[in-house]
Amino acid sequence: MDAGLLDDVFPPAVRLRLEESADIRPPQVVGEFGSPEAVAALAECEVLLTGWGCPHIDTDVLDRAPRLRAVIHSAGTVKTFLTPEAYGRGIAVSSAAAANAVPVAEFTLAAIIMGAKRAFPLAQLFRSRRSHRTAADLDRHHWIGTHGITVGVVGASRTGRRVIQLLRSIDADVLLHDPYVSDAEAELLGATRTDLDTLVATSDVVTLHAPSTPLTHHLLDERRIALMRPGALLINTARGPLVDTEALTAHLVSGRIDAVLDVTDPEPLPADHPMWDLPNVFITPHLAGAQGNEVGRLGALAVDELARYARGVPLNHPVLLEELERIA
After folding, report:
1. What is the pTM of this model?
2. Of 38, 41, 113, 280, which has the most beta carbons under 10 Å away?
3. Does residue 187 have an active-site annotation?
4. Where is the D-isomer specific 2-hydroxyacid dehydrogenase catalytic domain (predicted)?
C-alpha cells in the first residue's frame, strides 16, 4: 500500500491488534513487489494485507508467494490490483468496502435531508442577496422538506443497503432498483423493489449506489433523466459514468431538477462547465468515502478479518469470484 497512509489506516490501537494477530514481514510497508525484501517476504507470507496504492498482484507475484492463502484489503475495490487468478489458487479475498460504505451512506443521508430542504440553492441565494428569504423563494420549489417523500435507491450495494437503513430515521417511502435483489429481499431491507423507469419517474429523490460496469454505463441517460419529476433531486455518490453528463446538464441548466454530485464524468468537470455555476447543483470533490479519521475504520475491519483468519473462522467480508463482474 501507499506507505504515507499507514498511520491513518492503522492508528496505534489498530496496529497493536494487528501485531497481536500476525508476524509482519517485512516490518516496513512494501510499495512494490520486486525488491529483495519484498521477494523474501512473499516466499513465506500467508496473508497479504493491502491498501490504497497496492501494486498489481499478477501471476508473477502469485508464483513468488507459494504459501499465500488470503488477501485482506484495507480499502474498497480489489478489482484494480488483484488478478482473478488468485481465486483459482484457492486464495481467500476480503475487502473493507463495508467500512467505506458507512461515511458514503452518512453523506448521502445528509445530502437527502439538505437537498430536500433546498438548503444549497437557498443558501446561495441568501449569500448573494444578504436579505431574508421570501415566500416567493420557497413557492418556486415543488416541494420542500422530507415529510412523506419518496426516495429511490439505485443499487443494493453495501452503501445502498446502509442508506436504506438510515432512511428509517426520516419519514420517507423507499423504492429500490437492483436486478439481483428479489421482492422479498427488498422488503426485508425496508424498501419496495421496482424497475428503474418507475423508480426515477415516481421518486422525489433518486440516489445512485451501483457499481460502474459496462451494464451500468449511462444508467441514467436522457430518456430516464427526462422521466424524473420536476423538482426532483438526483444524488450521485457512486461513480460519474452512471449518468450521461450532457443529458443531465441540460435538465439542470433549465432548473427542472436539482443535483448533489460527489462524482462526475469527467472528474473533475472542465473549468468552464456550466454545472459549476448553477444554484441548483452542489458539487463536492469525491469526498463521500472515508476521509481523515474515518480511514481508521477500514483498517480496523481489515484487522478484524485477519484475526478471524488466524482463528480459522470464515471471513465476514469475503469478495467472491462470482460477484466480481457486478460489484465496484
Report:
1. 0.94
2. 280
3. no
4. 37-319
| Average pLDDT, integer, range 9-18 | 96
317-321 long-range contacts, CB within 8 A, separation 24+: 317/94, 317/95, 317/96, 317/97, 317/98, 318/92, 318/93, 318/94, 319/73, 319/78, 319/93, 319/94, 319/95, 319/97, 321/84, 321/87
Answer for the pair 221, 247: CB distance below 8 angstroms, yes or no.
yes
Categorise residue 273: left if φ over 0, alpha if ψ from -120 to 50, beta otherwise.
Answer: beta
231-to-177, 225, 270, 312 alpha-carbon distances in Å = 21, 12, 26, 53
Nearest Cα residue to 127 out of 285, 283, 279, 281: 279
Which has the closest alpha carbon to 242: 273, 214, 202, 276? 214
Can the peptide bond before residue 314 be classed as cis, meaning omega within 30 degrees of 0? Answer: no
In this structure, what are the phi and psi dihedrals at residue 39, rounded to the nearest 5 degrees? -65, -40
pLDDT in tens, 26-43: 888 988 999 999 999 999
pLDDT at 141 over 80: no
Catalytic one of 25, 141, 273, 286: 286
Choose the weakest-confidence range: 64-68, 99-103, 122-126, 193-197: 122-126
Exposure b/e, 268-282, CB count within 10 A at least 16 = b: ebeeeeebeebbbbb
Active site residue: 73, 239, 251, 308, which one?
A: 239
pLDDT higher than 90, residue 290 = yes
Catalytic residue among 46, 106, 185, 267: 267
Task: Give the residue among 292, 299, 286 at the shortest CA–CA distance from 75.
Answer: 299
Q: At what angle do helices 97-116 and 119-129 cross, to 10 degrees?
A: 60
Of 115, 142, 160, 153, nearest to 256 (Cα)? 142
Q: In this structure, are residues 171 and 146 in contact, taking their beta carbons and an 8 Å threshold?
A: yes
Does the annotation mark 64 as catalytic? no
Closest-CA residue to 267 (of 292, 251, 294, 287): 287
Task: Compute the distance between CA of residue 41 and CA of residue 27 in angstroms, rounded to an integer.
Answer: 10
- Residue 127 phi/psi, 5-degree rounding, is -65, -40
Summary count for the chain: helices (H), strands (E): 14, 10
